[in-house]
Design a protein that fits this description.
2 strands, globular, disordered C terminus, mainly alpha, about 90 residues, two-stranded antiparallel sheet
Length: about 90
């Protein structure tokens, strides 16, 4: 299943106000999409999403691996956390 279709299938309805609920894609899917795109603003978005208390790192890893983004994630991770695996690199 394509990542975007999967993301929509797993989206959750959250209350907006007393009369309205909105469908929201899980932050793990948003972060995976940002990994794929890899623009500077996407790198900032990944960091912000990963700081959310509800962010499920295990689910994020599953999404990354399932959709062939593991190598891309390694490069992105080196950029956003350069001390983790070596020097800062460019995408």
């Amino acid at each position: 299943m394509a990542r975007s279709v999967e993301a929509l299938a797993r989206a959750q309805y959250l209350p907006y106000d007393d009369e309205l609920s909105v469908r929201v894609v899980l932050p793990e899917y948003l972060a995976a999409e940002a990994v794929k795109l890899g623009r500077p603003k996407d790198l900032h978005r990944i960091v912000s999403l990963m700081e959310i208390d509800e962010f499920n790192r295990d689910l994020f890893r599953e999404i990354i691996e399932k959709h062939g983004l593991a190598e891309r994630w390694k490069k992105v991770h080196n950029i956003i956390d350069p001390g983790s695996q070596g020097p800062k690199t460019r995408l």
